[in-house]
Amino acid sequence: MARLEKTVAWLLIGSLVLAGQASFCPASDEPVRPRTIAMITWRGETDAERGFLAGLDRKTRAIAIQVHHAGQSVARLDEIIEQIQASPVDLIYVFGTTATRIVLSRVKTTPVVFNVVSLPVATGIIASWSHSGNNAVGVSNQVPVRQQLKAFMKTCEFNRLGIIFNPGEQNSLVLKRQVEHLSREFGFSLHAFPISEGTDIPVRLAGLAETVDAVYIPADSLIKSLGRKIVSVLNAQKIPSMAAVESMVPDDGILLGLVPSYHALGLTAAEKANHILAGAAPDSIASATLDHFQFWINMKTAQRIGVQIPLSTLIMADRIVR
């Protein structure tokens, strides 16, 4: 009798276990398809992409990443778009103004999350910050030019400001016009130096110190890729400089930067992607900028070009390169 009771008990336990397993079994035997993101970089992987990958919600859903490096080549970007269209994905991540404009000119239905686009409304990428009016949403690396120039003028006195920019990039042209407008308010003359390729640097920037007292460099992928060559010319002529690209201060030797954190931009872009993968339409999600910027100072450059950084400026710095 005892043996019978033990047998029945084990049968009951086995039934409960099987019932519990059945209750957790999916309704279909088909494997869950991971959501696929095509990640298009323009000038290689940056902290923006690393932040984006870190911010994706992988606990809720499986995510597969396809990485495509355009290498600042429009022809290569066209090939990438053809590959994506031949094998559709759930979402496209794209870096920068130029690449985003090209992608959106050809991709009309797949959701697109853009990142590091300074002026998405002014350049026609989205209709407004609250509603894109298309299949895109994203994050801007815009830092108000007024704030950048004020920080620059507190550190270095200048009456003649040079701006080094890419004439083939619409975002650079818009920022150049903003600086032109502010030059009248702040009382300095503006001198423009367009750079379209590396060979322009020795030609355009020769004898720069005779023309300007300081140089401002807006955010642009081409100018960033030429950063070390440009900054070596500036520093050799002992010209103070400010850039709107985070990495140009520690990597290229720019003196100052009032910049967004690329990693934070990536995390914010990932929030947009998570909403889309959860079912939201891009047009229903507001595009964003960061509300905090980092003030960088390169003390190595300051010593090299003979600039004394005021103590009040050093106190404000978020990052100091020594």
Automatic annotation (TrEMBL):
Keywords: Signal. Gene3D superfamilies: 3.40.50.2300. Residues 1-19 form the signal peptide. This is ABC transporter substrate-binding protein. It comes from the Bacteria. It holds the Pfam family ABC_sub_bind. The keyword Signal applies.
